[in-house]
């Protein structure tokens, strides 16, 4: 396994050390620091993180349950690859769940959270204007997080964020399509205004359309692979 920038974790009682290792590896996978198909060697990771192999082994098992790590014959644990068919499936599920979250957020959002949402929107628009994709993705995640939390459903929040994490490595693909940044930014504006106006049905409709448009942008030049070709 090639070197990464993983740094040692603070040594704590075993369950906490395991959880710290889990979160660190999870973030490295989601951000792409650990690449799809990259082999994960317990001994090497333990040395990099400054822990024993036990919390690393347990963290890898937890990540395997999430689908972020796979076990392959002769190779052992590797960062899971996400096929286009899986990305398509996740987008379709997200369309439903994020529509529901937007609807619930419109019903439950507080004035303080509505202000935070509009401030996050302004940062998205600034990043989009500058075409700063790194900043845009960061602000986009924060904007979405405000809406997910405003829905007031911890279970729904967990379901959505898990799905988003699985394709976080791929979201920049859609932004490479002509005018998608501008279109997505307008969709964010419409969504925020619907939520602020407490129009649940409209917020749900806009959220679902946004996810569907993001799905179409992802597959614009990347037809799904693996098995029967699904229709975007």
TrEMBL record:
Gene3D superfamilies in UniProt: GntR ligand-binding domain-like (1.20.120.530), Winged helix-like DNA-binding domain superfamily/Winged helix DNA-binding domain (1.10.10.10)
Cross-referenced InterPro entries: GntR_C, TF_FadR/GntR_C, Tscrpt_reg_HTH_GntR, WH-like_DNA-bd_sf, WH_DNA-bd_sf
Stretches assigned to the HTH gntR-type domain: 15-82
GO molecular function, one term: DNA-binding transcription factor activity
A Pfam family this chain is assigned to: GntR
SUPFAM superfamilies: GntR ligand-binding domain-like, Winged helix' DNA-binding domain
Superkingdom of this protein's organism: Bacteria
Alphabetized UniProt keyword annotations: DNA-binding, Transcription, Transcription regulation
Name of the protein: DNA-binding GntR family transcriptional regulator
Species the sequence originates in: Desulfallas thermosapovorans DSM 6562
